[in-house]
Design goal:
Distance between the termini of chain B: 14 Å
Number of helices of chain B: 14
Number of helices of chain A: 4
Oligomer: heterodimer
Low-confidence stretches of chain A: 1-9, 14-19
Number of strands of chain B: 23
Helix content of chain B: 25-40%
Helix content of chain A: 40-55%
Largest sheet of chain B: 4 strands, mixed
Shape of chain A: globular
Chain lengths: ~90, ~425
């Protein structure tokens, strides 16, 4: 993502690399991130809370984010996060 | 006296919707007073406890509008730090206003809490937490008063992971100076839901749902919209109903992660269960294995489902053991179930539950979950069961009669009526 979307009426350009394979976990993580952000949460804190506790109550039900995140295993999400971080370094 | 009449042995079939969680709604409604502006709370269950708490807030000066499970709370005009003594005595959760008003006004006063009579439930841990934040605590003539000129952060180790104490300390620490750490905190989902609401209002809370919660105090909070999580105890009760008398019952709006211990025990008993992303489908099994149950703090088997699970165990082919470790006196339902034919032997905190056939009888709901257990027994019983004192049940189950009728149960309330305060 190129920048944080603070105004949700505004058109925002995302610079995802389309040649890169996006995993299911990565795709869902991004959708959940945006749903949390739109509801006024700090998405990083909420996702960290979910990954630590395993409790989907951390994730808003807005835009089916809670349903979506429960379709992937937490270890797949963590794997995606760590691989993505290491590959960017 | 308000009663439920239940004609047993009817097969249950269809979909039953779970309401928002009472135990999340009550602290969240209280927390709305921390903000400077209006909050809109969605999926608030229409229950006696909720209406009593709303009435307490109104008497403190807040504007509250509650329609169709949506509650709007405007705290701008709050002008009292003390709760109405008569209303507060009826509602254990009124003690959350101690943490809220201590954070907001530096002082708070309420009656020593009421609620179900299921054992000695002191609020020592709450008070220990307030003292660690620099508050002075006084208990006089059945009232608790807390006061602090300047609430400051503290490190608190809870001797027991008490849900009420964890919530009350979180509420107070939200606006205290510095970083508060609660160790051995309770991990219940309702605490996460409260933390979600507080953080979206502007609070800084991390670790809810784990045994260490860190709160950095902030100067002000703004009201927000928030949807309450589904009630895991209501969900569990209807799942047990389906397991006793179901012929394809779908319990909808369930976060299955919150009721794993129950689902595991029912599966072990041989109940046919199908979990999906929004609910659980259940049918009664021809033959049930026996299991043993031990209640524990979350994520262990919930004490709030112990009485209902005991009814389930009477339907097994062999005896099972129920051990209660959370509330010492939570066995009042055994005498009432015995009037319906249950063979249960109590020894201290342990009950030996023998296979039993229920017959309809006139029984009394001695507390909220005991009442739920008697309704379940009534569904399994031969003939008519009359449950007295159903106001206890209506403190925790929204529209229980309509919901059970919707899946084919033959149950009537007398007199027919809506939930009111009082």
């Amino acid at each position: 993502m190129s920048k944080k979307n603070n105004n949700h009426d505004e058109t925002v350009k995302f610079d995802f690399d389309l040649s890169e394979e996006v995993s299911e976990a990565g795709y869902i993580l991004k959708r959940v991130y945006h749903a949390l952000e739109e509801r006024g949460y700090n998405p990083v804190n909420q996702i960290v809370g979910y990954l630590i506790s395993g409790d989907p109550a951390y994730i808003t039900s807005y835009k089916d984010a809670r349903t979506m995140i429960r379709t992937v295993d937490r270890d797949d999400i963590l794997e995606e996060l760590i691989s993505s971080y290491i590959n960017k370094k | 006296m308000d009663k439920f009449y239940i004609q047993g042995r009817n097969k249950l079939k269809g979909e039953i919707q779970v309401s928002g969680a009472k135990n999340a709604a009550l602290p969240i409604i209280s927390a709305a007073l921390l903000a400077e502006s209006k909050s809109t709370l969605l999926d608030i269950p229409d229950l006696r406890d909720v209406r009593n708490l709303a009435a307490i807030l109104e008497k403190m000066g807040a504007k509250v509008d509650f329609t169709d499970n949506k509650m709007e709370i405007d705290p701008a005009s709050v002008n009292k730090h003390a709760t109405d003594p008569e209303l507060a005595r009826k509602l254990r959760a009124s003690y959350y206003l101690l943490g809220v008003m201590l954070a907001k006004e530096g002082k708070a006063r309420t009656s020593l809490p009421g609620g179900c009579n299921i054992g000695n439930r002191p609020i020592d841990l709450h008070l220990k937490g307030f003292k660690a934040l620099g508050a002075e605590v006084k208990i006089e003539h059945g009232h608790v008063e807390v006061e602090a000129d300047n609430l400051t952060a503290g490190q608190i180790y809870l001797d027991y992971p008490s849900v009420g104490a964890t919530i009350n300390i979180m509420l107070a620490a939200t606006m205290a100076d510095g970083k508060t750490i609660i160790e051995n905190a309770a991990r219940e989902p309702e605490i996460i839901d409260l933390a979600n609401y507080l953080t979206v209002m502007g609070a800084n809370i991390k670790g809810a749902g784990t045994d260490i919660i860190k709160i950095v105090g902030v100067d002000k909070l703004e009201g927000q919209e928030h949807r309450i999580i589904p009630d895991r105890i209501e969900a569990g009760t209807y799942i047990i109903a389906g397991a006793i008398a179901g012929e394809d019952v779908y319990v909808k709006n369930v976060l299955v992660e919150h009721i794993k211990p129950l689902l595991a025990k029912l599966t072990e008993m041989g109940v046919e269960l199908e979990e999906d992303i929004s609910g659980v489908r259940i049918s009664a099994a021809e033959k049930l294995n026996s299991v043993d149950i031990k209640t524990l703090p979350y994520p262990g088997f919930p004490t709030d489902l112990q009485a209902q699970m005991m009814v389930m165990l009477t339907q097994a082919e062999e005896p099972g053991i129920v051990t209660e470790t959370v509330w010492e006196d939570r066995f009042a339902h055994i005498d009432e179930l015995a009037r319906m034919g249950a063979k249960i032997k109590l020894d201290g905190h342990t009950a030996l539950v023998h296979p039993s056939e229920f017959q309809g009888a006139e029984v009394e709901a001695t507390d909220l979950r005991a009442g739920a257990a008697l309704i379940l027994a009534g569904l399994a019983a031969e003939g008519l069961t009359v449950v007295n004192e159903v106001s206890h049940v209506e403190r925790g189950y929204e529209n229980i009669v309509d919901k059970l009728q919707g899946i084919g149960a033959v149950i009537q309330r007398e007199p027919v009526g809506r939930v009111t305060t009082g």
